[in-house]
Write a structure and sequence with these properties.
Layout (H helix, E strand, L loop, with lengths): L1 H31 L10 H57 L6 H25 L2 E2 L2 E2 L11 E6 L2 E7 L6 E6 L2 E6 L2 H4 L9 E3 L5 E2 L8 E9 L4 E4 L7 E2 L9 E4 L5 E5 L7 E7 L5 H12 L7 H58 L3 H26 L8
Antiparallel strand pairs: 1-2, 3-4, 5-6, 7-14, 8-13, 9-10, 9-14, 10-11, 12-13
Helix pairs in contact: 1-7, 2-3, 2-6, 3-5, 5-6
């Protein structure tokens, strides 16, 4: 009998404890609104929810990266758009000067000097724009975002050279699993043309292009002098000179400047001394072109009015060459921004789907809980009633 009473007691206690815990769990779900408040509530669903939450965090990080990328690319695009407009206006101004009559008299020189000063102001503005920062990072330094891309050298307060000091590599950022995009470009790729053409000579010395592959860029000034016996050639204002042999093959003479750049010259038909312009299409950068245009208008080489007009026209072509590079980069940036916008929308859909699935797994069904609570309360009351009756059995009930 002792064993029987003990068994009855244990069963009753177990039933009451089971219903009590079930009620407590249901009441907790009602209070929190969540079906899973701890892993033990539903291990399989809890594991799935943790995976979905991790996915949401990863996608959110990618979306933040995309926002950063779009912001930087939009800023770069706006800077390039303003610079392109300025270049177009400058080209128009240079073209207009060709339609006027600007001789070598004082009036003509004053007009060119005013335009030269205007171009000098544009040069200052362009360097400043190329050194634009966004969120404390330089837009056109490639991976070296902490370093200003362009450094200037001045003489008498004016810029005489602009040197790129950023990285040659573009900085990338991961915007999705296995997908990276460039957000900080190398200024060398933005402001310089890389479609080298054949050097062109503009002068009356008789010098012509040699057969070698020159690596001089942009505009160079070829100085031809004669020492009484031989012609001498230089492309750095006489700092370094090459003597043209009086006999033998002189059709491919290499002339080197202090920077190590080489211009190959055919000296076969040299007939006069003087200075002539050598331009290399497809190698122009924005800053050197503006410097060249400014100095040309000041006529520091003592050229004729006709030659100045001819070279100003070629300078305008050089600016248009650089402008076309900028326009091409703007198109690239616009395409990339559109791609990132679409990618962000797709990631947002993935994130939303993960949130919905996690919510469906976690969220408590209040209507069903109410039914379950009512059922559990009825079972609990029944268990209490049965336990009360069983516990009231005494020895007299067995006599």
């Amino acid at each position: 009998m002792s064993g029987t009473l003990s068994s009855i007691y244990n069963n009753a206690t177990f039933a009451l404890d089971m219903h009590s815990k079930a009620l407590a769990s249901l009441q907790e779900q009602t209070y929190t609104g969540s079906r899973i408040n701890r892993t033990s509530d539903d291990p399989a669903s809890a594991y799935r929810v943790m995976g979905l939450n991790t996915q949401q965090r990863v996608v959110k990080n990618y979306m933040d990266n995309i926002d950063e990328a779009i912001s930087s690319l939009q800023m770069s695009s706006e800077v390039l758009l303003d610079m392109t407009k300025t270049i177009s206006d400058t080209s128009v101004t240079l073209t207009q000067i060709l339609s006027g009559t600007y001789g070598l008299d004082q009036e003509g020189q004053d007009a060119r000097e005013r335009l030269a000063q205007q171009i000098d102001d544009i040069l200052e503005s362009m360097v400043s724009s190329a050194n634009t920062q966004h969120i404390d990072q330089y837009l056109f330094s490639g991976t070296s975002t902490a370093v200003a891309p362009y450094a200037v050298q001045r003489e008498n307060g004016e810029i005489v050279s602009v040197t790129y000091q950023g990285s040659q590599e573009e900085r990338t950022i991961e915007v999705a699993s296995g997908i990276q995009t460039d957000i900080f470009y190398s200024g060398e790729d933005i402001f310089t043309s890389h479609e080298r053409g054949t050097p062109e000579f503009y002068g009356d010395t008789g010098a012509a292009v040699g057969s070698g592959t020159s690596n001089v860029k942009g505009d160079a000034w070829l100085t031809v002098t004669h020492d009484g016996t031989n012609y001498r050639l230089s492309i750095d204002d006489g700092a370094t000179e090459v003597v043209v042999p009086a006999s033998g093959d002189v059709s491919n003479i290499a002339i080197t400047n202090a920077d190590g750049e080489v211009l190959y010259v055919d000296a076969t038909n040299l007939t006069e001394t003087g200075v002539e312009r050598v331009r290399v299409p497809g190698t122009y950068n924005l800053f050197d072109t503006l410097i060249s245009a400014r100095d040309l208008l000041r006529n520091e080489k003592g050229l004729s009015a006709e030659r100045i007009a001819d070279l100003v026209e070629k300078t305008s072509e050089s600016l248009n060459e650089v402008k076309n590079v900028l326009i091409e980069k703007q198109v690239t940036l616009g395409t990339k921004i559109n791609f990132l916008d679409t990618l962000k929308d797709n990631l947002d859909n993935i994130k939303f789907g993960a949130e919905e699935e996690a919510t469906a797994l976690e969220e408590a069904d209040i209507a069903q809980i109410a039914i379950d609570i009512s059922r559990r309360e009825s079972l609990y009351q029944m268990s209490l009633s049965i336990a009360g009756k069983l516990m009231s059995i005494s020895l007299l009930d067995f006599i």
